[in-house]
Amino acid sequence: MTDATPTLPPLAFLGAGSMGGAILRGLVAAGLTGGGVTATNRSAAKAAELAGLEGVTSVALETVPDGNTAAAASADVILIGVKPAMVPDLLDEIAPHLRPGAVVVSLAAGVTLETFARHLGAGVATLRSMPNTPSLVGKGVTGLAAGADATADDVALVRALFETVGHVVEVPESQIDALSTISGSGPAYVFLLIEEFTKAAVRMGFDDDAARLLAEQTFIGATALLASADVDPAELRRRVTSPKGTTERAVAVLQDAHLDDTFTAAAEAALARAKELAAGA
After folding, report:
1. Which strands sit side by side in the sheet containing 77-80, from one edge to the other?
2. DSSP 98
3. Domains defined for the chain, CATH in brackets
4. How far apart are alpha carbons 77 and 205 in whole angstroms?
5. Hey, is 165 helix, strand or coil?
6. pLDDT tens-digit profile of 192-235?
7. pTM
8. 105-128, pLDDT tens digit by residue?
């Protein structure tokens, strides 16, 4: 996250579900909704969840059918957070209503910049983003790929937006799906490891509360140590692993399970699904 607080223009989140909602809540927490934000969701119940956020106008499409077009027309940056299959129809809907110079940012997995250009028309600045849910607490990582019509200023503006909720990595579009398998899906992998570590603690006799504390705080502490260290994770692991000690024995079991192959296979499975989504499967 940058030290300087940027000034953000009016924003629209079309489809403020889990990912869009995480980014939106991160912006609210950072105090960056002063330019005005409109968020749309299909149901009144979902819209109500965002209604109390400072600087946010939350719209339910079931009661305001033209909410997406009105939101897009009022914004300089429009973030598209609906399900991938819904993106083309939404782009067709908002294209005639975009302000001159508006920037359209995709939050949708697997939807290409070519799709955005085809539905929005020539000359519209578009970018693909791949944020992750830790953006909610200002610890996100967002991959960003710029379309052909996005200027350096457009990229800088969108980068500043996502830097308010974490770090940004700019990549060519050819790498955005691969990036999604690491940082986009990655939090789920970490949560799965904590789940299993907690279960192991319970099996060793700890009650549920103690097991959860031991597992969660160990991961939180280890990542905080990594963030403050000037060495890589492999070196930190070596420092914990005393020769012929208990940790060495445990690490050997994990390495014998071929975690390198398992994590590679998991990332490749996620990448294959991203390609299926891009193909409309």
Report:
1. 56-60, 37-41, 11-14, 77-80, 103-106, 125-130, 140-146, 166-170
2. P
3. 11-173 (3.40.50.720), 186-277 (1.10.3730.10)
4. 53
5. coil
6. 999 999 999 999 999 999 999 999 999 999 999 999 999 999 99
7. 0.87
8. 999 888 899 999 999 998 999 999
